[in-house]
Write a structure and sequence with these properties.
The chain is mostly helical. It is built from 6 helices and no strands. It has a domain of 59 residues. α3 packs across α4 and α4 runs antiparallel to α5.
Length: 118
């Protein structure tokens, strides 16, 4: 996803760039819906895999935040909170929100599909 985000046009709005970057993840689900479901279950039910998944996800969040900061002209390590109203998320918060979705989405998804298969 980070490579896809880096490859997006510089003048593309950050939210749209993130949407396209996340399409890498969603296209994997579309190609073979059972595979990501089984992998998600395995990761969520194996403590060592879950720990590594969360560690890698944290690294990806930080990398995406840096990419977005550079795209918006902000210093990657600077305080990126905008002077605008609180309802406007900062460039650093957007990838964390997006990556947070990828962390929490598998839990209800795996339990929902388990109920369907009974």
């Amino acid at each position: 996803m980070c490579a896809e985000l880096r490859a997006r046009p510089d003048d593309e709005p950050p939210a749209l760039a993130l949407r396209h970057a996340l399409s890498v993840f969603t296209s994997l689900c579309d190609a073979d819906p059972d595979k990501p479901l089984h992998m998600s279950r395995l990761i969520l039910n194996t403590p060592a895999l879950l720990a590594r998944f969360l560690e890698r996800q944290s690294q990806c969040q930080a990398e995406m935040a840096d990419i977005l900061a550079r795209r918006t002209g902000a210093e990657p390590d600077a305080d990126l909170r905008p002077p605008s109203p609180p309802a406007s998320p900062s460039p650093r918060s957007r990838p964390r929100c997006a990556a947070g979705w990828t962390a929490t989405a598998p839990r209800p998804w795996t339990s929902w599909s388990t109920r369907l298969s009974r």
